[in-house]
Amino acid sequence: MCLMPYEEYPFYAWKMEYYNQNVHTWYKKWEEKNPTTLERVYKYVKKNGPTASADFKRETEKKSEGWWDWKKEKMALECLFMKGKLLVSHRNNFQKTYDLVENVVPNHIDTEPMSEELLPNYITKTIFGSIGIGNGQELKTYLGKAATKHLWKGNKKTIENHLKDCVKNDLLIEAKIEGIDEPQYLLKEKEAIVDMLPDKNYENSRVKFLTPFDNITRERSYPEKIWNFNYKIECYVPVPKRIFGYFALPILDGFELIGKADLKAHRKKEILEVKALAFEDGIKLDEARVERLSNGFREFARFNGCNSTEIASSVQKSISNKLTLS
Question: How many CB atoms lie within 10 A of CB 299?
Fold first, then answer.
């Protein structure tokens, strides 16, 4: 589920309208074959309010065979969501609860699709405001490809021309990053970050463990371009093919992505387990960095309600012996 401020709804309303009018998606195909189920589920939600898939029983008693083994009503709920007829109001654990748009979006929020005149500046400000610095590659993919495909046919040259126009109109400024040939851009209002230099005086700070969905990691091409940092979530990779672990988190140390840590919080035992720990080539574990890493583990343990941190035997002793976690 995509979490967004209500104020962003007009853009997503435009996006849903675009797909409904221009793309023959899976839910259109399903709707064509199941119009009666779709109408029945919509009327149910309209009458009963917040609705989860569990509110409908399967036609047979067979158990679900996995994530995508959806019953008809679940398919209908997702179809109505994709069509913009329903929104997800909240979750109970992992289960979505759906409701009518007018019951989820506050009355003061415009629910009409965003006008095409506003689209170019909206997506430009939103994307560069989220990632800080980037170029046409991020503009093309960060909010999905629908808008850039519609506005500029997804054409690299046309998108670059838009970025140059934004520079002329003082929305963006152009920047150069050492080691990257193509020009990068950032919002004019964020111009001060161009003069930022890595602060080497953060010995008393801590590293941070990033979610895979952080703005700088969610598009995997971005950390690879900026840091030469190759990353993917391996929970979707078969166990024998995993390299860094089930849910390894990128490690941010100051201005550097230095490695990956596969962490598991055993909340009943109040223990944070370091299942795997790997560093990028060339990263030196000097005394100051080890201290920041130790501070990071202790803080992450507290954040997850854990009182202690344990390092699995699979982690190299040359690394684990350096850390001070108690």
Answer: 14
CB 259 within 8 A of CB 285: no
DSSP class of residue 60? Answer: S
- Say whether both 161 and 188 belong to one domain: yes
Tens digit of each residue's pLDDT (9 = 90 or more) over 264-285: 999 999 999 999 999 999 999 9
**Is 113 among the domain residues?**
no
Own/partner pairs for 262-270, CB < 8 Å, 24+ apart? 263/209, 263/300, 265/301, 265/304, 265/305, 265/306, 266/306, 267/304, 267/305, 267/306, 270/305, 270/306, 270/307, 270/308
Question: pTM (2 decimals)?
Answer: 0.80
Q: Give the domain extent around 277.
A: 208-320
Rounded Cα–Cα distance for residues 174 and 187 (Å): 9
What is d(CA 124, CA 274) in angstroms, rounded to the nearest whole number? 39
Which two three-digit tokens encode residue 90?
Answer: 């909240």
